[in-house]
Amino acid sequence: MKSPCSFFLPLLTIIIPLYFSGCSTLVKGLKQPIYVDSKPSGAKIIVDNKEAGKTPANIYLKKKGYHNIDLELNGYPRYSMDMKKRIDPWFWGNVACFGGWPICFAGDYFLGPMYRFSQDSILVDFTALHNKTEDNKTTSSPDSPVKTINIAVMDLKSMGVKEHVSLLLAEKLRSELFATGQFSVMNREDMTKVLEEQSFQQSDHCETMECMAEMGKMLGVSNIISGSIGQLGKTYSLTLKMVNIESAKNEKIINLNKKCEEDELIKLIEEATSQFVPNRF
Q1: N vs C: which end of the chain shows fewer Cβ within 10 Å?
Q2: What superfamily would CATH give domain 149-280?
């Protein structure tokens, strides 16, 4: 008759290695190799503010904690990145298959091997990085500023809508246009002052292209927006016209209708603003 040991010993030789294989600390180690290269090669590798060689090279990062890697090459902008971590699948295997054997679980957690870095290699193309930086300088150069449209927004003509509501909507339109960063909007106070000095007041009768063009020249703007807000039942109708002062022609006409409550008219103005953005013309 065979002894119990003759049965259990072969079984243990299978179970014990399998059991310990769930421990990331023993299987995967405390450090992770990262291959670092650059184009051109020879870049200085700096890990956590300490020099760690030159590209191409393998570096070994402790899985515990966080690390920053910088690459420096004469004549090129410095490259910097933070190494991101995720939980190592070995750790989940330990938990799922072996119940997170206490010693391994604690070791993996406190020593770091429960994590691994998201990438095993880093390749930096300094030539492409340099070209991109130069392109950004050209785009943001003072010699090529972002072009904005000088514009004045007239008070909206009320048609069945309370006057203070139409005034508020016109002011909302001014602020929304200014917020796009594509318009330089003249405020109402300055506009009124200039027109009064020229004995020219905002008027419902100034609706012709010639009149609007004359007003725009007095204000020193390139475009004027005028329009009306009307109400029929619970439906509001917003009409806006953008006049080009130089050509004395309509550059944009917007008609929007919305069945809503009075306090929802703000959304109508926001929708109109989106249609005035230059690149949507």
Answers
A1: N
A2: ABC-type transport auxiliary lipoprotein component (3.40.50.10610)
